[in-house]
Amino acid sequence: MDKKLSHVDEHGWAGMVDVGGKPPMRRRAIAEGRFCAAPGTIDLVMQGDLPKGEALSVARVAGVMAGKKTGELIPLCHPLPVDYVNVSFERTGPGEITVMAEAGIVAKTGIEMEALTAVSVACLTLYDMTKAVDKDLRVEGVRLVEKTKEAL
């Protein structure tokens, strides 16, 4: 790969990118990931019947909170005044829930890290909420699905 990394200077030192000269734009990002468990465990999650309580609402709030705190968690991310973060869940197989996060902002830099962080933390929260009933849990396929920007 010949492309220069934006977070690395001419000496090879990592640093925060200066976005001060960029114009604000309307930005949106969608990320997804999969939470995998035994079908019976997914049944309990979908029914809201876990020993720790109703997992989907807890995971939704955790994902939203994480998206808003991304600049504090990822060292070189800009702290952003996020306009919104939405987290949703869909059972996409007998032993699988797909977690989706959408984040939006009007800013000088992107919002994809916030969407990815929201999905990751929502999946990890599902893991935490179900680990007492299932020892074979997995989080898979966390990825950016879409990233858009438009001029104001």
TrEMBL record:
All residue ranges annotated as the Molybdopterin cofactor biosynthesis C (MoaC) domain in the record: 16-149
Sorted UniProt keywords: Molybdenum cofactor biosynthesis
GO biological processes: Mo-molybdopterin cofactor biosynthetic process
Superkingdom, taxonomy of origin: Bacteria
UniProt pathway annotation: Cofactor biosynthesis; molybdopterin biosynthesis
NCBIfam families membership: moaC, PRK09364.1
Function according to Swiss-Prot or TrEMBL: Catalyzes the conversion of (8S)-3',8-cyclo-7,8-dihydroguanosine 5'-triphosphate to cyclic pyranopterin monophosphate (cPMP).
Protein name per Swiss-Prot or TrEMBL: Cyclic pyranopterin phosphate synthase
Species whose genome carries this gene: Algisphaera agarilytica
